[in-house]
Amino acid sequence: MNAEFTVEEQAFQAEVRVFFENEFPAEYRAKVDGNIRLSKEEIVNWQKILFKKGWAAPSWPVEHGGTGWTQTQRHIFSTEMGLVGAPEPVPFGMKMVAPVIMAYGSEEQKQRFLPDILASNVWWCQGYSEPNSGSDLASLKTSAVRDGDEYVINGSKTWNTYGQYADWIFCLVRTDTTVKKQEGISFLLIDMHSPGITVKPIVLLDGHAEVNEVFFDDVRVPANNLIGEENKGWTYAKVLLTHERTNIAGVPRGKRRIKALKRIAAETSDGFGDSMMEDSAFSKKLAEIEIELKALEYSELRTLAALSVGKAPGPESSILKIVGTELAQRIDEIFVELSAYNSLPFVPEQFEDGFEGEALGPGSSAASALTYFNNRKASIYGGSNEVQRNIICKAVLGL
Amino acid sequence: MNFSYTEEQLMLQGMVQKFVQKDYDFDTRNKIVASDKGYSEDNWQTFAELGWLSVPFTEEDGGFGGSAVDLIVMMEEFGKAILVEPFVPTAVFCGELVSSLGNDSQKADLIEKIMGGSLQLACAHAEQSGRYNPASVSTTAVTEGDSIVLNGEKISVLNGANADKLLVVARESGETTAKDGISVFIVDASTEGVEIQSYTNVDGKNAAKITLTSVKISVDSRLGAAGKALPGLESGIDRATLAVCAEAVGSLEALLKKTVEYSKIRKQFGTPIGTFQALQHRMADMFIECQLARSIVIMAAMSLDSNDSDAEKSKAVSAAKSRIGKAIRKVGQESIQIHGGIGVTNELDISHLFKSVTALDVMFGNSDYHTKRFSSL
After folding, report:
1. CA A260 from chain center: how many Å?
2. Nearest residue of chain A to residue B260 (CA atoms)
3. pLDDT tens for residues B14-69?
4. Four-way CATH pick for A251-395: 1.20.140.10, 3.90.580.10, 1.25.60.10, 3.30.930.20
5. Does B216 lie in the same domain as B246?
6. pLDDT digits (tens, 9 = 90+) for B182-229
7. A284 touches B at CB < 8 Å
8. I need a surface site. Which of A72, A145, A290, A300 has the fewest CB within 10 A?
9. Chain A neighbors of B319, CB-CB under 8 A
10. A123-231 architecture in CATH?
């Protein structure tokens, strides 16, 4: 047993590290460190830098433009990316719809969609959840009725992350209402510029609108945008859900944030003549999250090692999702506690590009409450943490 | 990167599992706890014959290799069976002290006897006023010619009543909590002035309070250089701490497994209680705790086997002990709760596993202590 990388892996790590240090633009890095959002153009530009290097989609097979890396190389890549604060490519195209197109799409669909996803020429979003279908996703109602060579779509989707930027949406739609709910669902690709689509922003509790509602009003979609067979969409979607999700645990981001906490704590007065680093209650909390992150990191490495020797992915991703999101939320809380009064001003604009007002408190103190608010979503999305616990009960404990 | 056990480790694991299944069921274990010595000498001889007592020692010292991963493989299986034989005090803790502090002749003499199963040892380090701090030593060691005279009181000496020899931590110079001035002495348990009050801990293991009144020993019984024993003592405590962490991982796995099984057969309101989501999610959380506990113990074992600095190794062990302490509370308490009334009786192994992990949480420093130590390193 050992957690060390081979000489080749270490060389790869060094190469990747140098690339991120040099190629992730310094102004983007400054924004990420200051909790300022990257614009659509900046995100796309960063993904195009990765594409130019041939590193846009490490998890894809080589024939479609993937890297052919091992599990460990992919882990190293994703870790190094997280450590400099570079955003992971937006997952909806690369990691969500692309694997489904590869597995179940026609040759024509592969040719039509995959190259533009790889090159970040089109922005995809996800059309799964509906206002009345959250954790019980299979109860979805948005309908697709066949009319000649087209489907006619009516209904609405919600929680579309970055729907405002999207060119395309992949949707689960109901094509049969007479059978068991899972058996009447189809997987359909829809052009977001089609007549009859309306995107309405949803402002979240941090004052920002990163998610949207998407309304479909008699939207006509060519039937050749259907993936695979009609009414088999649930099966395809489930494959997508179990598809490998790298960095689900968020270990590198956690490490970066703990470093930031220590830096800010050293600059923050405890009110009694010392810094917050000297506060025993605070330093105990800090130690606890550092220890939890270690336990999480080694759980992730164990999972990775098992995958590397060909074991099928089990419920490990549920553990990593639960523990990773709960730890991230714990770190959010500690940021708020550390920021004290500086966490209170509600100035969402200060995290947008071009804000010229005064920053309050050391580091990114004023971002702390908004980040805390926003990130409550983490234990809800991607299958709520309760759904993940159900999966563990069923798959591991046999309950 | 490789997280698989080697062939040898799998064999070792299989051997321990086989022994435990055949010779260490719950009733047998309880009879051993109730016996005079509180452990089975026959089992101890078996351990020696099977080579288990050599596992903690390096090949240089004549042992099996001294790998920390080998150690956690064994300890986990011991933990599942709540084994009470004094493997940790004699072979791991005192073994490491002798190995890291002893001179060649002391090592040759003691290690061979430990591995052969003919010597029981106990380390008398803890004191009432010292809590978990290994540097807090008020027991004194005064040189008088060729002799050394020991005076003081030691608590929670694991295996204290059964030890042939005690490894006594005493101060030759400096203030009570000074890092310098601490030595370890080999003292025959039968030496005049050594008073041993034996008792059984909540986990069924033997321990003792030991009073030293003008105990006169030879100057040759000092283990290592005068006053310089603290680093060796800490490395001994670290290794023993890792061992009890792995023991706890085994016990927690057993608690989880037994609780899930019980929830499938115990019926209330006409249905197995395991069908209630209120209980299911608690068991899912127990499973997560067990996984995190295992991960962090593996992390610490890998660190002890690596070229990490002493401080990094100590930090890794403290991270593990701190996290395991939390897992112990959570999994232990939930196991009792999900069992309901039967969980608080003395009849089931559940309650004994619970008592055992509770003791393991305390041993060599609890969660709070190790969290603080982690911060300070």
Report:
1. 22
2. A397
3. 999 999 999 999 999 999 999 999 999 999 999 999 999 999 999 999 999 999 99
4. 1.20.140.10
5. no
6. 999 999 999 999 999 999 999 999 999 999 999 999 999 999 999 999
7. yes
8. A145
9. 290-291, 294-295
10. Beta Barrel (2.40)
